[in-house]
Amino acid sequence: MKRYLGSGCNLIDLHYQYQIGHSTIRKIVHKVCKAIWTYLKEECFPVFSKEKWLEIADGFRQRANFPNCLGALDGKHVRMIKPELSSSLYFNYKKYFSVVLFAIVDSNYLFTYVDIGTPGKDSDSSTFEKCTFYRKMINNDLDIPTNQPLRGTESPKMPFVFLGDEAFALTRHVMRPYSGNILDLWNVHLDFYHTNGEFFINL
Predict the structure, then answer these.
(1) 41 and 33 in contact (C-beta within 8 Å)?
(2) Among the four 75, 100, 106, 193, which has the fewest Cβ within 10 Å?
(3) Cα–Cα distance between 61 and 26 in angstroms, integer?
(4) Any one cellular component term from GO for this entry (predicted)?
(5) With the C-alpha atoms ordered 63, 177, 73, 75, is the resulting torsion angle positive or negative?
(6) What one-character DSSP code corresponds to residue 91?
(7) Residue 157: enclosing H or E segment and its boundaries?
(8) For the CA atoms of 154, 70, 140, 174, what is the dihedral angle to 10 degrees?
(9) How far apart are the first and last CA of the chain?
(10) Residues in CB range of 187: below 8 A, 6 or more apart
(11) Is the omega angle on the peptide bond into residue 149 within 30 degrees of 0, that is, cis?
(12) Is the dihedral of CA 136, 145, 75, 6 positive or negative?
């Protein structure tokens, strides 16, 4: 199981390596994955609550000096072999076939939400807008805390936001860096990027 999930070996590879029928291996993998999801989903992906959001926001305030932040979001194209009869559905702007791994992480680089499987032709923004998280955010079903003043101030009350790059559209709860290379001294330039699956914030 560890080899299947960790190295990407297919069932036929495991069939020859362990001398077990590939149909038996398929059943083992299916049962183990189902058990992992059943018993660990609440621990790894707990239900969103106001208390959890405030805990995440406090982490961003302490680590990045960015208040009212609920997470950093971005997409990652995972290279794949072109599926049969898929035409250009999975062909991305980087000129290879992929599925999109969309994720939101907290200040400790821990995933708080993932969406996997969107065809590679879709942009990060459209992937985000198609996922269940976005629909819940738009419908105010995420139990996001109400607006509150930034630390050290009394007004105005500012919304809690998720941070993304220029690919994402601005909404009430999504913020992105200033566009352009030249900024005046009154603007704060935040640079968000990710590498090797980790998300970073440059202040």
Answers:
(1) no
(2) 193
(3) 45
(4) nucleus
(5) negative
(6) B
(7) strand 157-158
(8) 90
(9) 41
(10) 178
(11) no
(12) negative
